[in-house]
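Re: that chain you flagged

S.,

Sorry for the slow reply, it's been a week of failed gels. I finally had a moment to sit down with the sequence you sent. For the record, here it is as I used it:
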Amino acid sequence: MKPGYKTLRLIAMLALVQSALPAHAGALAEALEQAWPLHPKAAALDARAAEAQARSDLAASLTPAPAALSLGHLNDSLGSGRGKQEWEIELAAPLWLPGQKAGRAAEAASVMDEIAARRAALRLELTGELRTAWWALAAARQANDLAQRRLHSARSLEADVLRRYRAGDLSRIDANQARGETLAAQAESLQAETALQQAERVWRGLTRLPAPMRLEAEALLPGRDTASESHPRLAALSSAARVANARLKLAQTTRRDAPELAVRVLRERGDSNESYANAIGVKLTIPFSSGPHLRRDTAAARAEATQAEAEQLQAMRWLALDLEQAHRDIAAAEQLAAMAQERREVTADTLQLAEKSFTLGESDLTTLLRARAAAFEAEAMSIQQETARGSAISQLKQALGELP
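Prediction finished late last night. Pasting the structure tokens below so you have them in one place:
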């Protein structure tokens, strides 16, 4: 072995551990703010908010629909030609049914509340994607760092073996084994670098930001074990249920089309020798109620309300299961991390003894390579378990509905 190999390996290990330590949650929160305008559903929510505002304005108007103006003219120029003229102007406006105006206002208010709740739920959903990408990036970066250190170690070992092979202390088989170890480490390093580039591409696709230099673990606040009704996903489903119930009530109120009140002004003469006469009239149109039409609308609204309530209950069950699983994942990750750390220490001690024994010529290269492989495997497992613990904490915060 080269004299500085162990020192370089220790420095690299300390740097990797330091990069995994938590610093603050600002990077993930900043990523959420950068990713939010890029989400296609966010723009759709803004458009739906404008639609809900238009619904509210319509509910506050004097009539359920715009008034209509009609103009009519009648003459006998193609007939007797005696100069008969008739002009008619009619202004018609629909009227609110009893309870319909209040129902429209309640529906518009519930839709606006639903959009706000869906916006919060969508931000939580996007946060989940970022958390997944965050920890995938952390795992890929740690795997790449470990592969780079394994490659550096393999090259140092190969140089030492070649030196001793040329001096006649080791056989050509040992030199070939050392070369094979270097080639295997190079292949692993290339694969790890490719995986890291893919993880960075996913991160940039979500945020248009470069991968952060430090990937922090999130802090878990104590005392949060269950999802409350303020959970964004539950709140969105609850708002959807309120919208469906408001539409059902509106459908039950609107039993017929809107009645129409019209004011007519008529100006006419029988022939060219007569003067014009004016008349004013009022017309009220009341549509009949349609049983099938009413049943269709109420049945559709009732089905929407039933589905929304069922989805809300199902979401509550799934959230409870997600929370239970997240707690189990954290407990398992902590236990596995402790065991992996102990194994890491044992294999590191074994590797140190094997390196010393190989340097003194007391053991062969095969024994050293086995010790090295076990040490790197244990180190990789330890790092993976630390990452798994951080990911489990993020999944628990996701299940609790907490944003960074």
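What I noticed first: The two ends are 46 Å apart (CA to CA).

Talk soon,
D.
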